Amino acid sequence: MDLKELQNFIRFVAKSGAQEVSLETDDFKITVKTGPDGVVYAQAPVVAAAPVAVAAPAAAAPAAAAPAAAPADDTSKYVAVTAPMIGTFYRKPSPDKPVFVNVGDTVKAGQTICIIEAMKLFNEIECEVSGTVVKVVADDMKPVEYGQTLFLVDPA
């Protein structure tokens, strides 16, 4: 399924009034859900991989899982600043300007911390809490999804 067919499928689901539709083929699986607010959410297509490709990462997974468990406990005290929309994440107001915030910076509620470009509109994203930025989670100039964590802020 190419991108145009995928977009047509999502439009079809949005217009149909269905709350959830899943499409599965030999190559991929996609689920499209319509939220209570009428917004359509699509789960990223899962592409089938060859058994050889799956075996190599599986061997490395236990080693990677152990370090990830410790920071998960540490981040529970932080507030996640999430993306309010789908778009492209930018840390700077323009390419020749400095970033809005860095790790270690103190932010106030209502302060602009990044921009998300959606449909050629640049939306300033404000921090919901006051505190210190402890981690920039999203990658600059990369797409972000609705609800994706952009920053972690220590409200202390």
Quick summary:
The chain has 156 residues and is α+β, with helices and mostly antiparallel strands. It contains 2 helices and 12 strands, in the order αββββαββββββββ. It has helices at 3-16, 51-74, and strands at residues 20-24, 28-34, 40-42, 46-47, 79-82, 87-90, 106-107, 112-118, 121-126, 131-136, 142-144, 149-154.
Radius of gyration: 19 Å
The number of helical segments is: 2
CATH fold field value of the largest domain: OB fold (Dihydrolipoamide Acetyltransferase, E2P)
Percent range for β-strand residues: 35-45%
Low-confidence blocks of residues: 48-73
Q: What is the straight-line distance between the termini? A: 48 Å
The CATH superfamily of the largest domain is known as: RNA polymerase II/Efflux pump adaptor protein, barrel-sandwich hybrid domain
Name the CATH class of the largest domain: Mainly Beta
User: Main sheet, how many strands, which sense, barrel?
Assistant: 4 strands, antiparallel
Number of domains: 2
> What is the overall shape?
elongated
- CATH architecture call of the largest domain: Beta Barrel
Mean pLDDT: 77
Structural class: alpha+beta
DSSP strand tally: 12
Question: Roughly what percent helix?
Answer: 10-25%
Q: What order do the SSEs take from the amino end to the carboxyl end, as H and E?
A: HEEEEHEEEEEEEE
Would you kindly provide a written description of the structure presented here, covering whatever features stand out?
This protein is an alpha+beta fold and 156 residues long. It has 2 domains: 3-47, no CATH class; 77-154, OB fold (Dihydrolipoamide Acetyltransferase, E2P). Helices cover 24% and strands 35% of the residues. The protein is built from 2 helices and 12 strands. The protein has helices at residues 3-16, 51-74, and strands spanning 20-24, 28-34, 40-42, 46-47, 79-82, 87-90, 106-107, 112-118, 121-126, 131-136, 142-144, 149-154. Strands 1, 2, 3 and 4 form a 4-stranded antiparallel beta sheet that branches. The chain has a 4-stranded antiparallel beta sheet with strand order 5-12-10-7, with no helix packed on it. It has a 4-stranded antiparallel beta sheet with strand order 9-8-6-11, with no helix packed on it. A hairpin with a 2-residue loop joins strand 8 and strand 9. The N and C termini lie far apart (48 Å). The relative contact order is 0.15.
